[in-house]
Amino acid sequence: MGYLVKVWDGVQTKLAQSNQARRKPKAPYLVHEEPDIVLRAARDMFTEDVAEIVVDDPKDFQRLKEFLELFLPERAGDVRLYEGDEPLFDEYGIEDEIARALSRKVSLPSGGYLIIDQAEALTAIDVNTGRFTGKGKTSSRRSCRRTSRRSSKLVTSFASATSAASSCSTSSTWRRARTATRSTRRCSRS
């Protein structure tokens, strides 16, 4: 809220200065411009869940530090300049995480996996037990149920995360939940 108040004060100051100037600017006139991606990311995503921001560009580090000192002074010390020899994304394994997030195949802790195929109006999720079909006293039916239960949790968390970002979330969430339910039923019949 403090950020918005300061931005609004800046807009009002800019308008007052333009009204007092001899040569007034012609319409359309820019009164406010959103900050670039670095500052926007800090403004929108630097919550209490984020411990620190690591930046590898000295200019961006300085701009971000100044921005936070102005709008979030209590978090300005949580920005760190990365000065390592290895690229920042390699150091933190970010490219691997991106590749994993964009992958069609999602591994489950039990050894099973999901295959996710997205089309315009449907997301199909195929649940597979993979190499895990039960060991010792665990029957294949039991391992199938366990895989389905775990995958249902993952699918519903995927559906809720996707629906939050989707404008037509109600029908797509319903379809995803229905897909998870079908796969659970199919597995328990076999």
Summed up, what is this model?
By secondary structure, the chain is mainly alpha-helical.
Explain this structure:
There is one protein chain. With 190 residues, the protein is mostly helical. The chain folds into two domains: 1-6 and 28-102, no CATH class; 103-189, no CATH class. It is built from seven helices and five strands, in the order H-H-E-H-E-H-H-E-E-E-H-H. The strands form two sheets. It has a three-stranded antiparallel beta sheet, covered by helices on one side. Helix 6 packs antiparallel against helix 7 (169-189). The protein is elongated and about 85 Å long. The N and C termini lie far apart (56 Å). Residues 164-190 have low confidence and may be disordered.
Major sheet characteristics: 3 strands, antiparallel
- Provide the β-strand percentage band: 5-15%
Distance between the termini: 56 Å
- The percentage helix is 40-55%
Rough shape? Answer: elongated
Q: Number of helical runs?
A: 7
Keywords summarizing the entry:
mainly alpha; 190 residues; 2 domains; elongated
Topology:
Layout: H1 2-20, H2 37-45, E1 53-55, H3 58-71, E2 79-81, H4 88-92, H5 94-102, E3 105-107, E4 113-118, E5 123-128, H6 140-165, H7 169-189
Helix pairs in contact: 2-3, 6-7
